[in-house]
């Protein structure tokens, strides 16, 4: 009897360990995080992330302003910057999707791990998720063909950011919600996403 209890105990311990073991993305960015100044009251990183979204995804023309590029460079270089590990992870994600597009090789599992990490950590630091994370998570869930989670994140994203053009676009593109299509064609006809569609 004792032998079985020991075996069961070992099994449960190894199962729990397997479930709590971090993936390589978490391990890597947690190391970066440990060398980062964390400040839950410093909104610079969050605001910069939102500015990126506004200029590249929400605007009619997808383009950074020169001042934003300078602001990003200054934020990344300055030793006074707080919560920089979030921005580092976001830039790594950008690099992954850029290379995937160039090489025409998608890496949905890697994208999912990075986005899940970013989502968790933005909630930890700011108790909210920037719009760009919702957009990237929706794109990743679409690659993984997970319609249930896809709908959940589009709905949640639009609840928090009801004017998000990319989320409205993905709602009709991926979930066939025609209301948003009509809305976008009427109000946001010049947006670059809509022009790709046409």
Structure report:
With 198 residues, this protein is an all-alpha fold. The protein contains eleven helices and no strands. Helix 2 packs antiparallel against helix 5. The longest helix has 20 residues, at 84-103. It starts with a helix and ends with a helix. The model is unreliable at 1-21 (pLDDT under 50).
The number of helical elements comes to 11
Helix/strand/pairing category: mainly alpha
Give the helix level as a range of percent: over 70%
What percent strand?
Answer: under 5%
Q: Could you say which overall geometry the principal axes of the C-alpha atoms support?
A: globular
Gyration radius, in Å: 20 Å
Unreliable stretches, pLDDT < 50, 5 or more residues? 1-21
One letter per element, helices H and strands E, the order comes to HHHHHHHHHHH
Residue-averaged pLDDT: 84
How far is the first residue's CA from the last residue's CA?
70 Å
| Quaternary organisation of the protein chains | single chain
User: Major sheet: size, sense and barrel closure?
Assistant: none
Secondary structure tally: strands? 0
Furnish the topology, listing elements before pairings.
Layout: H1 2-20, H2 24-34, H3 44-58, H4 66-77, H5 84-103, H6 108-126, H7 131-143, H8 147-160, H9 165-175, H10 178-187, H11 192-197
List keywords for this structure.
11 helices, 198 residues, globular, mainly alpha
């Amino acid at each position: 009897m004792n032998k079985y209890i020991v075996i069961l105990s070992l099994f449960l311990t190894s199962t729990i360990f397997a479930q709590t073991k971090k993936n390589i993305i978490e391990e890597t960015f947690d190391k970066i995080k440990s060398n980062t100044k964390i400040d839950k009251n410093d909104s610079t990183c969050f605001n910069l992330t939102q500015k990126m979204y506004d200029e590249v995804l929400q605007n009619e023309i997808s383009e950074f302003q020169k001042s934003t590029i300078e602001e990003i460079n200054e934020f990344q270089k300055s030793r006074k910057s707080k919560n920089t590990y979030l921005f580092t992870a976001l830039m790594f994600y950008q690099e992954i999707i850029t290379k995937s597009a160039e090489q025409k090789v998608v890496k949905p599992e890697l994208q999912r791990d990075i986005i899940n990490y970013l989502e968790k950590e933005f909630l930890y630091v700011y108790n909210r998720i920037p719009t760009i994370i919702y957009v990237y998570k929706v794109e990743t869930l679409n690659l993984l063909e997970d319609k249930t989670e896809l709908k959940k994140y589009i709905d949640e994203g639009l609840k928090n950011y009801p004017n998000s053009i990319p989320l409205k676009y993905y709602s009709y593109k991926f979930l066939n919600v025609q209301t948003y299509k009509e809305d976008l064609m009427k109000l946001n006809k010049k947006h670059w996403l809509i022009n790709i569609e046409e």
